[in-house]
Structure formats: C-alpha cells, structure tokens
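Please discuss these two lines.
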Amino acid sequence: MAIIKIYDTTLRDGTQAEDISLMAGDKVRIARKLDEFGIHYIEGGWPGSNPKDMTFFKQIKKVSLKTAKITAFGSTRKIENQAENDPNLQAIIASGVKIATIFGKSWDFHVTNALNISLVDNLTVIEDSLAYLKGQMAEVIYDAEHFFDGFKHNREYALETLRAAIRGGADCLVLCDTNGGTLPFELADIIKQTKKGLKPLKQHLGIHVHNDSGVAVANSLMAVTCGVTHVQGTINGFGERCGNADLISIIPNLQLKMGHKVLKKENLQKLASLSRYVDEIANKRHNSRQPFVGMSAFAHKGGIHVSAVQKDPLTYEHISPDWVGNRRRVLVSDLSGRSNILYKAHEYNLDVGDDEQTRKILERIKDLENRGFQFEGAEASFELLVKKTMGTYKPFFNLLGFRVIIEKFRRTRVPLSEATVMLRINKHVEHTAAIGDGPVEALDKALRNALEKFYPVLKEIKLTDYKVRILSSDRGTKAVTRVLIETTDAAGNKWGTVGVSTNIIEASWQALVDSIEYKLIQSMDDEHEL
C-alpha cells in the first residue's frame, strides 16, 4: 500500500471558521502537538495577509520539530507584478520556511469574473509564480483552487492550469473542491480523467476538499483509492462554512481500514487526545459523537448490545477503541439490562452480588429515569446509587435544612443571592451562610463552608460545568428540571452528577451533594490503598 502524506491546514484554513480564532502562541502550541502526532506538513498561515501569521513564523523557528515541515500559504502573483516584486510571494520568502504552498485559479469562470484577466494570462501567472518560488524553496506545492468545478465547466482549461504548474516546477498538484459540492463518484471520475490527461505525470497528486455536501472525508478517501498520496485537511474538520475534511476521521480510516502507511502505530493512539487538545485551545466543546474520538463513539446503552460486546467487542464496534486512544463506555438507562449493570459495577470495582441485587439496581434506575434522571453523563451519581441500593453506603453528613434568599434592591442592581445550610456531621451541627453571584453558587459555598473543616480534601475540588435541561416544557414554570454538574479535583479527575426536581435549587442541591460525597468516597478508598 502507498505511503500517504498528511498536510494539516488547521492553523490557516481551519481558522477561517466563523467561531475559531487562534493567537500566534495558540498556533505554536497546536503545531507542537501536530508534530508529536506525526503530521508531515503543517501550514502555518498566510504571511502576506496579517501580522499574526508572521509572528507565528518567527516563533515556530525557535521550536525543534521532529517530523513536521512548516509551510507558508499564499496566492499566485498579481498580473501587474513581476514575481520577484510581488508582495505576496515576497512575504512567503520572508517567513523563512523551506516549503511554499500557493493557490491559483483552475476554473475559467473565476479567471474572467473574479481576477478579470484573460485565460492565457492566468496560465502565465501560475507558471511564473511557481518558477520563482521553486528557485527560492526546497519544495513548492500548488493548490488548484476550484479544480473540480473548473473541470466540469471547461475540462481542457482546468488541465492546462495544471500543465502550467508543472512547467513552473510544482512538486505536488493538489486538486481542490473549494465549494465542497462534488460527490465521491464524480470526484473519482475526474481524478482518473486528470491522470490520463496529464500523462506522463511525475508530480504527486494531492486532495483538498470542503464539507458543504457532507462528504469531505469520503471524498478524501476516494481520492486516495484513485492514486492521490497527499491529503489535506484540518483537525476536527475546522474550516469556513461547513468546514474542511476532518483529518481525525481520515487518518484512522486510511491506516486501519485501507492499509496505507500514514504514521506510527503508537502515534495513532494519540488521536483522541489530539482532537480534544485542539478543541480545548480553540475554546470549542468537543463533539461527543465525533467518529473514532468522541465520548459516544464506543458507548453502548441497549442491554442486548452490552451483552454482545462483553462476549466479543466486534459485535458492535468497528475497531478497538484503544487503537485511537479512546475507551469503551457502557451507559445505564431505562434501556439497560443486567449486562449494563454488571459491566458498570465491574468498571467501578463494585460487587453487586446475586441476581436479586442486580434486579433491585435495575428497577431503581428505571424508576429514576422515568422521573427524569439520566446517568449517561453522571456516572458518579450511578456509583452512589448502586452503593445506596446495596446498603453499603454510609452518609458523611445529614441535611437539617437549607435556605436560599434572592434579593433585588433596585432595578439597575444585580440580584444578591444568599444561602444558609444546617448539617449534622457526626455529632456536630454546622450552620453556615454564604453569598454568591447566583443561588447555586451561594448554596455550593455554604455547603463547602460547613464541610471543609471536617473534610479538608474538599478544598481541592471545583465545579467546572453546570447544565440545566427542562424536561417538560408544556408545564411552564412547573416544569421538571434536570441539572448535570461536572466537578474536577487537583489531580485533574472529573466526574458527573445529576439531580432532578420541579425546583431548580433542589435539583442543583442533589447534584452538588452527589459530587461532594463521590469525592469523599474516592478519598477514603485512596487512604485504604495506602
């Protein structure tokens, strides 16, 4: 099978997405991760377009990269400029990189309507620009913009633009589906015709597609089956409009499914962490249903599925999740069967005993989910539920009462939230109060104030996410509300808890108490291990 080179354009094309913005330092951090992962080319940006990209190129020179080659992006020269005097081409050279990627027009419609030059002049511009850069660079990549649309409209002219790039010395010809409108069967046919029309072809062929028709990954894979050996895309499919081809799906499909050599096997196990890292730097919530790397990619909920997976994971998993750095998850819900409960119990090192215990746990879960509870994102609450149902749970404190007051004194002032909590801890009664920006924060602070002197380990935990879901909107203000809380500790451990009530403060209290009790149970287990 072929060796496939991966060209990442997250730092340039990916940042054209309307909700993505990366500072130069962010781009350097991502570039380091891409290099560690084994990406072959990293497109750093367009140095002629903005100062931020030039800052990146200056900073990345100080970084010692192991595998990746940094490229600078730009366009062919303007018709009125000579190549050696064109500001865009000069900016690419000034960036200090050894590899340049420039794009030119392949669609005659764009040449005459966007550039407003003749078709012959466009061929000259392409050839001149590449020839000039070829004399300055170790490698020059040519992106044939709108190639597939251009081929459909004027086959011979689209091929002529590639011939001009070949005459200019391009090392790789990248066929671009810039509008993202080409379907896989069309793309395959056009690539085959292109190879035939350019015989003999010594240059590598590349592919760069957008996802406007939802087939960017499929088009990229199809291109490789047609002989393409250079694949461009972005991490998590970042990009303008509907995004670019997602390298997070492309890479494992190429290597695991199609048998091509892309990167080291051990590097592929970093796929999930790379995907989540880039989302984190870009301040994006990770897509739980993203193929291969999402939290739900290997999650099983139906009892029949879980039973089968326990016998052989191949029954409902197309690959082993650890191959891409992910993990199998078994969810508990009203669809759960005995297999789900046993699997989850084993995951938490819980001995649920006989079938009668399992039946009780299952009935309890189904009853709670009927009332609106959901344990998929609240596995800490699930563990507590199992222990309570089995009678192995001992409370760390008892609630004697809490009160939350919200006061607003003037129309222009924000409301003031105050909470008081009274707890019995062993034989002691603690009565504390706290003020917060909102009622839940005030309640959380008051609860912590009462508990931390008895359980100092609670000082290291913090609430990192708080979600509210209305479950019965037809009931208006009497609607049942579900609250999901995510908590983390100093070691970076995260756990989710859930509460449900027609009163949002009560639902929040349930989830807050579970989050604290879970941490206390874990700290006790750690002490016993020591």
